[in-house]
Design brief:
Keywords: Carboxypeptidase, Glycoprotein, Hydrolase, Protease, Signal. InterPro entries: AB_hydrolase_fold, Peptidase_S10, Ser_caboxypep_his_AS, Ser_caboxypep_ser_AS. The protein contains 21 helices and 19 strands. By secondary structure, the protein is of the alpha/beta class. The protein has a domain of 176 residues. The strands form 4 sheets. Strands 3, 4, 5, 6, 7, 10, 11, 12, 13, 16, 17, 18 and 19 form a 13-stranded mixed β-sheet that branches. Helix 3 runs parallel beside helix 12 and helix 11 packs antiparallel against helix 12. The two termini are 29 Å apart. The relative contact order is 0.14.
C-alpha cells in the first residue's frame, strides 16, 4: 500500500530527522547564497538549513523557485501549529531500517555468486533442513526463503518463493512487490494474493484458493532494505533508482540458482508505490544484456506513477459522483478549495519533474499532500472509500500478520536474521520522502518498455482514493508513446470473469497497453475481489491482453 500521511505528518517526519543527510543532493550550478541574496526569503527552508537537515547553505534557482511557491501559499504559523499536533515520536520507525541482525546461520544456506557481480552481490537460499518454510503449512508446494546480499553496503533483502500449484516446470514466474514506500511484500503474501491468509484469533495460516500461485510461481521480495525481514548494517536505500539496480542483480542470481525457471515467462507485478518501483526496474532489466531471463510483461495495481496527473484526479474522485462512479465524498466548498490548490500543486510538481532533486521535489510533496486534508477529515478509509479507517493503516487485520511473522518458530523456519518483523517501516518511508522520490516522474519508463514491445497492465480498484482509478486511467491516456493514438482510440469493453461469468470491470487495450477498472475493489484488489483478481492475472499471463 501507499502510506497515507497528512501534510503535517510529512513535515513532522522531516523535522524529526534534523541531521545531516547525504542523500539530499543539489545542483551546484548557479547557486544563490541566502546571506548574499537577501531578496530570496524562505523562512521554513532557512530553518531546516540551520537545523542541518540538508547539510548545505546554498540552493540553486530551481530550488529557490520551488520553496517560494510553497511558502507563498502555506503560512509558516499554520505549519508550526500542525507540528505541535504531531509529535515526532509518533512517526519514528517502530524499528530502525539500520537493524541489528541476529547471528547469521551461514551453514544452513546455499551460496550463489556470479562472476559478473564479483563480490558485490550474492544470494543465500535456506537449505531444507529440519526447520524450513514448508513446516509452517502456508502451502504444500515447493518453497524457498533466503537473502539477497549487497555485500559492500551490508544490505540484505529477504525473499520467499512459492512454486506454482499447477505446472511449475512450465508456468510463468511472477515477482511481487508491495509499496509504501517501506511496506513489506509479506503484506501482499498474507493479506492479498499469497497461498494463505492469517487467522486473527489463532495466528495460523488459512489456505487461499485464489492465490496467484494457482498458475504461476511467485517470488515475494522485501525491498527496499529495512522492510520486513530485510535489513542493513551500514546503509539504507532512499530512492527508487537505487532499488532498481539491486532488484535486477537479485533476479540474475535467483534465476542462476533456479535455472529451470529461467526460460519461463517472467512478469513483475505490484501495487501502490510499486508504480514507482516497477517501471524503473523494468527499464533496467530491459536494457541489460546477457540475462538469464527475459521480461515478459509488467502489472501495476493502483499505482502512483505520474503525480502531476494523478493529484488532479483527487478532485473528481472526491467531488464528482458521475465521474468517480460512486458518490460525492466532501462538501462543495472543500471541492472548490481543491480546485484552487491544484494549479500551485501542478507548478511545484513541474519544477520537480524538470530538475528531480530532493530540494525541488520536497516542496511539491509538502504542498500537494495538503490536497488529501479534506478527505482525511471524513474519517473514511484512504484505500476503500466505502469503509471507515479503523486503526493503524485502516486495516486491523494487518496486526495479525505482524504477530504471526514475529513468532519465534516462524522466524526460525524462514531463516530471519532480524530480531523483529515490521510490516511498514516509517524510517524507510522517511528516507524516500527526504530524497524527494515521491513526486518524481516514472511514466517515462513505462513508455520506454512499451516501445520495446513489453506489454503493460495498469489495473485499478475503483473504490480506492489514494491511488484512484481515475488518476491511473488519466495518466495511461496521456502517456507519450508511439501507441498513444491507438490506445485512446480503443473501445472500453466489459470484462466478465471466466470463473463465474460476473461483470468484473471494464477494459481498454491496444494489445500492448491495457487499462483495467476493477469494480468494487479498493487499493488492494486481490483482498477485495480475490476471484476476479485471479481471473485477471490468469488471463494476463496467458496472453489475453484484451480481456475480451
Amino acid at each position: 500500500m501507499k502510506l497515507a500521511l497528512s501534510a503535517a505528518a510529512v513535515v513532522s517526519l522531516l523535522v524529526s530527522t534534523a541531521s545531516a543527510n547525504p542523500v539530499l543532493g543539489y545542483n551546484k550550478q548557479n547557486v544563490l547564497s541566502f546571506k548574499d541574496k537577501q531578496q530570496h526569503r524562505h523562512p521554513i527552508l532557512d530553518k531546516y538549513l540551520k537545523e542541518g537537515l540538508f547539510d548545505q547553505g546554498l540552493v540553486d534557482e530551481k530550488i529557490s523557485e520551488a520553496w517560494e511557491l510553497l511558502e507563498e501559499t502555506v503560512d509558516a504559523s499554520k505549519i508550526e501549529e500542525e507540528l505541535k499536533r504531531y509529535s515526532s515520536e509518533e512517526f519514528k520507525a517502530p524499528k530502525s531500517a539500520l537493524r541489528q541482525p541476529e547471528l547469521k546461520d551461514t551453514a544452513n544456506y546455499e551460496h550463489i555468486n556470479l562472476a559478473e557481480f564479483s563480490s558485490l552481490y550474492g544470494l543465500r537460499v535456506k537449505k531444507h533442513v529440519e526447520s524450513n518454510p514448508s513446516v509452517l503449512g502456508v502451502d504444500t508446494v515447493e518453497q524457498w526463503t533466503g537473502y539477497f546480499d549487497i555485500n559492500e553496503e551490508d544490505k540484505h533483502l529477504f525473499f520467499w518463493f512459492f512454486e506454482s500449484r499447477n505446472d511449475p516446470e512450465n508456468d510463468p514466474v511472477i515477482l511481487w512487490l508491495n509499496g509504501g514506500p517501506g511496506c513489506s511484500s509479506m503484506t501482499g503474501l498474507f493479506f492479498e494474493l499469497g497461498p494463505s491468509s492469517i487467522n486473527g484469533t489463532t495466528l495460523t495460516p488459512v489456505s487461499n484458493p485464489y492465490s496467484w500461485n494457482s498458475n504461476a510461481s511467485v517470488i515475494f521480495l522485501e525491498q527496499p532494505v529495512g522492510v520486513g525481514y530485510s535489513y542493513a548494517e551500514k546503509s539504507t536505500v532512499s530512492s527508487t533508482k537505487q532499488a532498481a539496480e539491486d532488484v535486477y542483480a537479485f533476479l540474475q542470481l535467483f534465476f542462476a540458482k533456479f535455472i529451470t525457471f529461467a526460460s519461463n515467462d517472467f512478469h513483475i507485478a505490484g501495487e501502490s508505490y510499486a508504480g514507482h518501483y516497477i517501471p524503473n526496474i523494468a527499464s533496467v532489466i530491459a536494457n541489460k544484456e546477457d540475462k538469464f531471463f527475459s521480461l515478459t510483461s509488467v502489472m501495476i495495481g493502483n499505482g502512483i506513477t505520474d503525480a502531476l496527473i494523478q493529484y488532479y484526479y483527487y478532485i473528481p474522485m472526491a467531488c464528482n459522483a458521475t465521474e468517480s462512479g460512486y458518490k460525492q465524498l466532501i462538501p462543495d466548498d472543500e471541492c472548490e478549495d481543491l480546485e484552487k490548490m491544484y494549479p500551485r500543486c501542478a507548478a511545484l510538481i513541474n519544477t520537480c519533474y524538470r530538475s528531480q532533486t530532493a530540494l525541488t521535489c520536497l516542496p511539491a510533496n509538502l504542498y500537494c499532500e495538503r490536497m488529501m486534508t479534506p478527505f482525511e477529515k471524513t474519517g473514511l478509509n484512504y484505500y476503500d472509500i466505502r469503509k471507515p479507517c479503523l486503526g493503524d493503516g485502516c486495516y486491523p487485520q494487518m496486526s495479525a500478520i505482524d504477530e504471526y511473522l514475529n513468532k519465534p518458530e516462524v522466524m526460525s523456519a524462514l531463516g530471519s536474521e532480524v530480531k523483529s518483523y515490521v510490516g511498514c517501516d516509517n524510517q524507510v518511508f522517511r528516507n524516500f520522502i527526504l530524497s524527494g522520490d515521491e513526486p518524481k516522474p516514472f511514466q517515462q519508463f513505462v513508455a520506454e518498455i512499451l516501445e520495446l514491445n513489453i506489454p503493460v497492465l495498469i489495473y485499478a480498484g475503483d473504490k480506492d482514493y489514494i491511488c484512484n482509478w481515475l488518476g491511473n486511467q488519466g495518466w495511461s491516456n496521456e502517456l507519450s508513446w508511439s501507441g498513444k493514438e491507438s490506445f485512446n482510440a480503443a473501445n472500453t469493453t466489459n470484462w466478465y470473469s471466466k470463473a463465474n461469468g460476473s461483470h468484473a470491470g471494464t477494459a481498454k487495450s491496444n494489445g500492448l497497453l491495457t487499462f483495467l477498472r476493477v469494480f468494487d475493489a479498493g487499493h488492494m484488489v486481490p483482498f477485495d475481489q480475490p476471484s476476479h483478481s485471479l481471473d485477471m492475472v490468469n488471463r494476463w499471463i496467458s496472453g489475453d491482453y484484451l480481456f475480451a
